[in-house]
Write a sequence for this structure.
């Protein structure tokens, strides 16, 4: 890919995936480009320079890629929030609404200690359901969420406002119109 100074330029759009009428924002092209990936990680970290972050929490699945890289950069621990039944230890769970039903995510019950400062990360903010569930899990364990950081926001779906209404600090690198 040609050099660019905008993360958005590294993200491809796939029309009608996974369903007709959907404009899928594919971050795998961003992840595959070393310059683009580095830029995204650096830009996701920039707003929090100088802040104490104890752990990074990544939402399944692309949030794991981002969260691992960010945790490495900060020399802090990484905690996954996974789909129900994927974590081997004792977990707590949170149900949330999807476009076409409901889902459940889980976190290990000992993954976060009370008072730890948490940065929650994922690739895409759409309706905010998964992020809201992750926030509730972190808060149930006593974690203090410094911010929620995403590469992409789809403003028309209202996720950012949902998180702002919850009192969250929300950081995004770019926005795309439409679904």
């Amino acid at each position: 890919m040609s050099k660019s100074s905008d993360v958005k330029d590294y993200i491809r759009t796939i029309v009608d995936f996974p369903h007709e009428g959907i404009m899928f924002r594919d971050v795998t092209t961003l992840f595959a480009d070393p310059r683009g990936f580095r830029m995204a990680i650096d830009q996701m970290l920039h707003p929090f320079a100088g802040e104490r972050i104890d752990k990074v929490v990544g939402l399944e699945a692309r949030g794991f890629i981002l969260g691992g890289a960010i945790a490495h950069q900060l020399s802090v621990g990484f905690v996954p929030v996974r789909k129900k039944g994927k974590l081997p230890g004792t977990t707590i769970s949170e149900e949330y609404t999807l476009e076409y039903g409901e889902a459940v995510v889980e976190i290990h019950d000992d993954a976060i200690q009370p008072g730890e400062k948490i940065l929650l990360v994922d690739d895409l903010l759409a309706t905010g359901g998964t992020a809201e569930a992750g926030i509730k899990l972190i808060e149930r364990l006593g974690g203090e969420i410094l911010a929620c950081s995403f590469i992409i926001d789809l403003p028309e779906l209202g996720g950012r406002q949902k998180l702002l209404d919850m009192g969250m600090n929300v950081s995004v690198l770019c926005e795309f119109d439409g679904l």
Observations:
- The beta strands are 12-15, 23-26, 55-59, 77-83, 91-98, 101-108, 117-125, 144-153, 170-175.
- The radius of gyration is 16 Å.
- The chain has a mean pLDDT of 95.
- The first strand starts at residue 12 and ends at 15.
